[in-house]
């Protein structure tokens, strides 16, 4: 079981008086607990180091008002810094671009790209009232193409046909042409992932990006992959101008540390959370909620 940061701090800082300022020593002890809590929440080590240092710098000398204990004062600073680092405000999709607006889905195999493509299509159709089209450029796995076709059928959205052996860029261009002619407002392009970062995959998705100039390039990442999420995110962010992140499988028991790592490493806002396997299981990202989860 995870111990929450507040109970950890309760033990460390209990002995201190209830007013005055946080001293260097208070903050040193509390920072140690913060570091442990973040590592247990699966935040990547370099991200933990940076984050703890920022909190430490803010906390030393900070005033402890009468209504707060030193632990609460420290925790409040941590919470504020987490929300700021996670992006502060909630950010939706950029729907202002010229239609058909293209959304390119990027991420490793199994991260939840196809499922999330369906979820976004459903949301755009039902909430934003857009005419949406889907296309799969995964020319290596017939099952992936079929999976997207089935999802599209279920939610009542057109899926542009594609087949194994075709060129992904040709598929995407043809789908975009078709979307234009059919007056589709959004085209969601699902892509092939790999089990780990690999050069051929990166070249392919970079070529897709160049060919179809997406308004949104979303990096999809499994929140359960913890420490690895940061390395994967860096590899994708180095090759693609990511406009947003979708963190999936947040309904699992991970503490959500991947959110902090991925946001820090990519600089791109987390836009949605996947919270289940169903097409309706997509939530808009709220930094404060995941901040509370990370802190336990
Ligand atoms: P892809 O290879 O990146 O396209 O990944 P898929 O969309 O096929 O998803 C891989 C697996 O993760 C499937 O079994 C999905 O049902 C599951 N999955 C995707 N998103 C979520 C989520 O938010 N929560 C849960 N519990 N499962 C998810």
UniProtKB/TrEMBL annotation:
Its main location: cytoplasm. Keywords: Cytoplasm, GTP-binding, Hydrolase, Nucleotide-binding, Ribonucleoprotein, RNA-binding, Signal recognition particle. It is found in: Cytoplasm. It comes from the Bacteria. Its EC number is 3.6.5.4. GTP binds at residues 107-114, 190-194, 248-251. It catalyses: GTP + H2O = GDP + phosphate + H(+). Belongs to the GTP-binding SRP family. SRP54 subfamily. Composed of three domains: the N-terminal N domain, which is responsible for interactions with the ribosome, the central G domain, which binds GTP, and the C-terminal M domain, which binds the RNA and the signal sequence of the RNC. Involved in targeting and insertion of nascent membrane proteins into the cytoplasmic membrane. Binds to the hydrophobic signal sequence of the ribosome-nascent chain (RNC) as it emerges from the ribosomes. The SRP-RNC complex is then targeted to the cytoplasmic membrane where it interacts with the SRP receptor FtsY. Interaction with FtsY leads to the transfer of the RNC complex to the Sec translocase for insertion into the membrane, the hydrolysis of GTP by both Ffh and FtsY, and the dissociation of the SRP-FtsY complex into the individual components. Part of the signal recognition particle protein translocation system, which is composed of SRP and FtsY. SRP is a ribonucleoprotein composed of Ffh and a 4.5S RNA molecule. This is Signal recognition particle protein. The lineage of its organism: Bacteria, Pseudomonadati, Pseudomonadota, Gammaproteobacteria, Nevskiales. The chain holds residues 1 to 296 of 454 of the full protein.
């Amino acid at each position: 079981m995870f111990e929450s940061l507040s109970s950890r701090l309760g033990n460390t800082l209990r002995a201190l008086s209830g007013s005055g300022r946080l001293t260097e020593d208070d903050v040193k002890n509390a920072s140690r607990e913060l570091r442990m809590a973040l590592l247990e929440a699966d935040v990547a080590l370099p991200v933990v180091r940076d984050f703890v240092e920022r909190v430490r710098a803010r906390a030393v000398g900070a005033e402890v008002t009468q209504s707060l204990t030193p632990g609460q004062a420290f925790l409040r600073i941590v919470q504020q810094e987490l929300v700021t680092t996670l992006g502060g405000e909630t950010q939706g999709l950029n729907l202002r671009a010229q239609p058909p607006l293209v959304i390119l889905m990027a991420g490793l195999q199994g991260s939840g790209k196809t499922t999330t493509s369906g979820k976004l299509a459903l949301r755009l159709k039902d909430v934003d009232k857009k005419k949406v089209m889907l296309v799969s450029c995964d020319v290596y796995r017939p099952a992936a193409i079929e999976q997207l076709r089935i999802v599209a059928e279920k939610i009542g959205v057109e899926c542009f046909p594609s087949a194994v052996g075709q060129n992904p860029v040709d598929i995407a261009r043809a789908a975009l042409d078709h979307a234009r002619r059919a007056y589709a407002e959004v085209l969601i392009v699902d892509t092939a992932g790999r089990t780990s970062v690999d050069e051929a995959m990166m070249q392919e998705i970079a070529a897709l990006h160049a060919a179809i100039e997406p308004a949104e390039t979303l990096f999809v990442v499994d929140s359960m992959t913890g420490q690895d999420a940061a390395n994967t995110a860096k590899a994708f962010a180095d090759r693609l101008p990511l406009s947003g992140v979708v963190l999936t499988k947040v309904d699992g028991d991970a503490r959500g540390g991947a959110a902090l790592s991925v946001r820090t490493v990519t600089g791109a806002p987390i836009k949605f959370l996947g919270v289940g396997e169903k097409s309706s299981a997509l939530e808009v990202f709220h930094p404060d909620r995941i901040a509370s989860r990370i802190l336990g």
